[in-house]
Design goal:
Distance between the termini: 44 Å
Number of helices: 13
Radius of gyration: 22 Å
Largest sheet: 7 strands, mixed
Strand order of the largest sheet: 4-3-2-5-6-9-7
Length: about 280
C-alpha cells in the first residue's frame, strides 16, 4: 500500500507501465551507472535496473529503506540501496546519469548538484512544471536558464496527469531532461563574460533591453541588431531566445569598445571574483 509520507514531500508514481514508458524515453543503457534520488516504492528503481548496468538508489526515509530497499536487493543484483540524505553524501563518482522522482521542495538544490557534478552527463528529473520552465527557459528564457545553457541543454520529455501520483500533487509535473554539452559553447573567460552580460540585462529596473543597454549599444546599433536577429526593439529580457542572447553577446564582444564593455564586465579582477 502506498503511504503518504508528507514529512519527506514524496509523491509516488503508481503505474508500472507509465514508468516503463518514461525510462524508455531516456538514453539509459547497459553501459550506464544510474543514480536514483528517493527510490520511494521502488517501481522506478526496478525499471532502471532492467535497462542500466547498475543502479545506486538512495532514500532518506528509513522505513522505506528497510522495507522497499530489501525487496529491491532481491529483485536484481545490479541494484545498490542506501539510506541517506543526498545533500549530505553527494552524487557518487561512479554514476554517469541521474533518473529521479525528486522531492519538489528540494528541486533547486538537487539541480545545482547535477550542474556541479563533473561525472554526470545526463539527468532525467520528475519536477514541477513551473520549476522546469525556469531551468529550461521554455516557453520563455529566464536568467537561470540562460546562465547555464552554454553548458547544458534541456528538453521536457513527458507531461504528467496529477492522478499519476499518490498522493496527488496540487501542481502540474513534467519529466525534464538535462544534458551536459560535450563542450561549453564559450571559452571559460567568455562564459563568465556572458553570465555578467545576462545578469546585467535581467537585473536592470528598465522595462526594455534597449534602455538597459543604452550606454553600450548606440541607437543605430540596436536598431540594426534587432532587425538582423529578429527581435522587437522594445523587447524585455525574457523575449529573446538563447540564440538571440548569444548573438547579441557576440556583437557586444566584437563591436563594442573596451570602455563600454567595462560598464558591464568591470575589471578582470571583478569578473574573476564573480565566477561560480
Amino acid at each position: 500500500m502506498i503511504r503518504k509520507r508528507m514529512r519527506y514531500a514524496q509523491n509516488f508514481l503508481k503505474d508500472t507501465q507509465l514508468i516503463r514508458i518514461l525510462v524508455g524515453k531516456s538514453s539509459i543503457n547497459r553501459q550506464d551507472s544510474v543514480f536514483e534520488i528517493g527510490f520511494g516504492q521502488g517501481l522506478l528503481t526496478r525499471q532502471l535496473a532492467l535497462r542500466a548496468g547498475h543502479v545506486t538508489a538512495v532514500e532518506v526515509d528509513p522505513v522505506l529503506k528497510s522495507t522497499v530497499g530489501n525487496s529491491l536487493l532481491t529483485f536484481a543484483s545490479n541494484i545498490t540501496v542506501e539510506c541517506a540524505d543526498v545533500e549530505l553524501i553527494g552524487i557518487p563518482l561512479h554514476c554517469n546519469k541521474v533518473f529521479a522522482n525528486i522531492p519538489f521542495n528540494r528541486t533547486a538544490r538537487i539541480v545545482r548538484m547535477i550542474y556541479e557534478a563533473k561525472n554526470i552527463t545526463e539527468a532525467f528529473l520528475v519536477m514541477q512544471t513551473e520549476a522546469a520552465a525556469k531551468y529550461s527557459g521554455e516557453p520563455r528564457e529566464t536568467e537561470a536558464s540562460l546562465l547555464v545553457k552554454p553548458r547544458f541543454a534541456f528538453q521536457v520529455l513527458h507531461r504528467f496527469n496529477r492522478n499519476d501520483f499518490e498522493p496527488m500533487p496540487n501542481v502540474d509535473v513534467v519529466l525534464l531532461r538535462i544534458a551536459k554539452r560535450e563542450e561549453c559553447l564559450f571559452t571559460s573567460s567568455d562564459n563568465e563574460a556572458f553570465r555578467s552580460f545576462v545578469r546585467f540585462g535581467f537585473r536592470s529596473t528598465k522595462p526594455a533591453l534597449r534602455l538597459t543597454f543604452k550606454k553600450v549599444f548606440t541607437h543605430e546599433q540596436w536598431k540594426r541588431l534587432s532587425e538582423e536577429m529578429r527581435f522587437s526593439r522594445e523587447a524585455s529580457p525574457t523575449m529573446l531566445s538563447f540564440d538571440q542572447w548569444r548573438g547579441l553577446f557576440g556583437q557586444f564582444l566584437a563591436r563594442v569598445s573596451e570602455p563600454k564593455r567595462r560598464l558591464i564586465l568591470g575589471s578582470d579582477s571583478e569578473l574573476n571574483g564573480d565566477q561560480q
